[in-house]
Design goal:
6 helices; Rossmann fold; alpha/beta; homotetramer
Chain lengths: 187, 187, 187, 187
């Protein structure tokens, strides 16, 4: 995994998704080199970069041009630009214009999570996976409810990570904000 | 409980102990108005103030004069100065000079936790309680080991608290650093 | 605080609310001996007992007669029966029949949380507090949304507690299920 | 990742390491197909199986023959037996008899963590990784202290996972016991 500090950042853009969460999202996604991935709300591009290393093709979508700029810089830094198409667009509309895909990541949904999941589901290949990372109480519930509505079985995992800072006086535990990962697979 | 933001703070002084942790320490202490309390490493005075409201007498000890200054300001703010003696001294030495007490709080121990617990135990009344709040991996283990060595039964509780920030987009959960509370009672 | 194991239990009845959560609910409630408390979904009676020790009067409500039986046994055990009226009824309907109160606790809502909060709010005295304890993702969001709808400011605290089991090999941390406490005060 | 329930289990044998922890250990290990892995205290074989899928060779060590039996059954189930040597032996002694390796996993240490890390370090190839998973307060501290003593920089991550159970009434969060992962790399 890439360390959080190795990503180019911008304090106005959320991310990068923390190392341990990127790791868990990768595991839940079961990504392989055959997969096409769509990353909605790519922000800094942390997940985009990780998936670009392992998938066949990634579409990184954000409606904020500043976010796309940072994502592009990170893709260049890690020499992954050829595998990624950076798309300046809003979801769910953008989904109509994309080819079918195997993995849908939703990190930011600007209040349209339900529509994104429903539109995304239409373009999702058989056995495809959807993974939502949520920092808001409300998106967790919306993700679960929408997946159920689509006849899918949601898997919900709340992750709380604390990292130890090695000080002279000892190992001080510092918490990261909890993230809930809601994932499912098209049957 | 007093809200965290209602305490006078200084960015060089640790504290105040967060509201929920103060609450749990109070519960574990079983404090009553008959109790004499010693607060070692009082920092901002968060716990000192809470115990001063409920106990008979509190000794607030810190070796940092700046911490004692902030503690004094908070005691004045909450009109609790008469119940508290603020002591500019180092532990464990200071314990020799204090009268016997019912509750020993150790929030900061500057690497001398084991000695503080052993000396404190000598001055602890029957049925007295000791409560250590720990942010370092190492102090948790030292507290447990020393209590066992003294023939006491340690109770260990790790507390992770996230608070919701009410934003327009929803309720964002933000984590506080985990705290471990190690407590015991003299039998 | 009463230890979890000191309550009479029944494996069909939820509870008792764990010691640390009872402690935090008490703190958030700012309970005093002048307060009248309504506990909706009292289950085993853990919170009922704690509030009966500190409040003027408690109404313990559950629609499950078995739960009320266990609550009564615990009230007898802790000699608190005179301060508590045990009410065999469903919420929100029951709220109409109760006198006005200062603290509304909602531990179980059987899918009617929003109605309970709205009806409860009508009977809540000025400066009264409402505290919801939630184990379901959905009730957290419903509590926050309903409080906002009522013009109240919700405070959301997610609590994760692990307790150390003192084994010969060391101190093993065992997790309790996370609880979210949503509280508010009538302004 | 393999689901927890897909492993053959035995209630006397610890494990399998939960899915999310296996995932994080894999990420921290940076395992590739060129790596030789030693898994000390393999228990049910959860990590052994995951590493056997990704590494060149795995040595699964346990001093409990029953654990090794379960590990063998899981290796057969996942058709990974050819890549794994199951070793009935005690650590740290066994380390002397093994060839050099790239990744040392320590899940169970029977009170000999410090010696295992020191002996293991001698057989660790350049750029090799050590990963300790700890459920005891004491092993966390021992791992950090021993890594420091060896001139290594420990990375400490405490992981608390709750999983949502999809019930009719909603999504109930149930906690797994917290695990601390202490990892380092030979420089």
């Amino acid at each position: 995994m890439i360390k959080d500090n190795d990503f180019i950042k911008d304090h106005d853009i959320p991310g990068p998704t923390k190392e341990e969460i990127r790791c868990l999202v990768l595991c839940k996604s079961q990504v392989t080199e055959k997969d096409t991935v769509v990353d909605i709300g790519c922000g800094t591009g942390g997940l985009t970069v990780e998936f670009a290393r392992r998938a066949g093709k990634v579409y990184a979508v954000d409606k904020n041009p500043e976010a796309l700029k940072i994502t592009r810089l990170n893709l260049e830094k890690f020499q992954l630009s050829p595998k990624v198409e950076v798309v300046d667009a809003s979801a769910p509309q953008v989904l109509e214009d994309l080819p079918e895909f195997d993995i849908l990541l939703v990190g930011g949904s600007s209040g349209k999570l339900s529509q994104i999941l429903k539109e995304g589901y239409k373009k999702l290949n058989d056995d495809g996976r959807i993974i939502v990372t949520s920092i808001l109480l409300e998106t967790r519930v919306e993700a679960v409810a929408t997946m159920k509505e689509l006849g899918l079985i949601p898997e919900v995992v709340e992750v709380s990570i604390s990292r130890g800072r090695i000080l002279e006086s000892g190992t001080m535990m510092t918490a990261q904000n909890p993230i809930t990962i809601i994932s499912t697979q098209k049957i």
